[in-house]
Specification:
Helix content is 31%, strand content 32%. By secondary structure, it is α+β, with helices and mostly antiparallel strands. It has one domain. Strands 1-2 form a two-stranded parallel sheet. A two-stranded antiparallel sheet has the order 3-4. A hairpin with a 2-residue loop joins strand 3 and strand 4. The mean pLDDT is 91.
């Protein structure tokens, strides 16, 4: 049994937002994860290079299959 687990799952958080707001949100979530030692999973469509650079690990899917999984 795991206690004090911290996980945050976010889906399509950038829909309708401009890239600078998306960057700010992902940056804040990243800070939260580092402070709490939490895990964050975020699903994004076409992140900008600046937003992409905020991630430590990525999982890229295509047609339901894994294309790449590993460090950014």
């Amino acid at each position: 049994m795991v206690t004090n687990a911290r996980a945050l799952m976010m889906d399509e958080i950038s829909t309708g937002l401009d890239s600078s707001v998306t960057f700010d949100i992902v940056s804040s979530v990243r800070s939260w994860a580092r402070i709490t030692r939490g895990t964050v999973v975020i699903a994004l469509l076409q992140p900008t290079p600046e937003v992409y650079s905020l991630f430590d690990d990525v999982l890229i899917l295509r047609d339901g299959g894994v294309v790449y999984h590993g460090p950014r």
